[in-house]
Amino acid sequence: MKRDFLHITDFSSEEIIEVLDLASDVKQKLHARDPYKPFSNMSLAMVFAKPSARTRVSFETGFFRLGGHALFLGPNDIGIGKRESVADVGRVLCRFNDMIMARLFDHSHIVELAKYASCPVVNGLTDFNHPCQIIADIFSVREALGSLDDIKVAYIGDGNNIVHSWLNLSLRLPMRFSIACPEGYNPDADLLEKARSGPSEIELCHDPFQAVKDADVVYTDVWASMGQKEEAGQRMKRFEGFQVNSDLMESTGKKTIFMHCLPAERGVEVTDEVCDASYSIIFDQAENRMHAQNAIMIKLMADSNMI
Description:
Layout: H1 13-31, E1 43-48, H2 53-65, E2 69-73, H3 86-96, E3 99-103, H4 107-116, E4 121-125, H5 131-145, E5 152-156, H6 161-170, E6 176-180, H7 189-196, E7 201-205, H8 208-212, E8 217-220, H9 232-238, H10 246-250, E9 257-260, H11 272-275, H12 282-303
């Protein structure tokens, strides 16, 4: 039976650790230029309703370096849910390809795509969540800190899809997760309540300095995501005081790493000084997208008895 990855919680706690270990192994193989080709004679259909340089490059390069071919399908190639139904897109693409990765706006579309596709489907991002990014993030945290025991992650900014996937991760891996966002920009209330009933300690506040106290990781994202740019001026005013700068980083009271899923609007949600500091791991984090996604795809293919 084929397996999909649409939400962090599609994997158990043990499976997440398995994927992190696999990502480390695959990363070493690629850095050593080992002839490791689990996707030989396979193809990946990449459906982009939302464009993204990092998502395309990381999936396309990763799948190619593991022996396969990745096919880019942009908004002008497939009008998913518009020119053709989501269900039919899923049915058709699986007749040609071994796996689908889709980066979409509407979260219900990725769920429907997986329902009707006969091959594994990977969620490359929706407006609701971004599971591949957060697997790459926690992989990067483990690399940087050496352990995931008793970590505190502080997220500063909009309660967006990144926050939703971190909340899902907190249901699988115990942590302290603190969110600081302006009033009116909270994450999804139902997911927040669910996360609070899980094994992690969840804090929601509106004071960045409170959130980052004793944090091992400080994380931020753009204040206006794709599809929200018309709100940028209003958000700039509402998010005043939520910039990650040296004062905020120094207030954690301990050695702390900085993370950003990129692209960053330098001088807006984060300063150049923080982005380029020795404690910033944003470019390791960016590279690890490829390694984490490779591990996810290998696991899905293996669990679906395709490799």
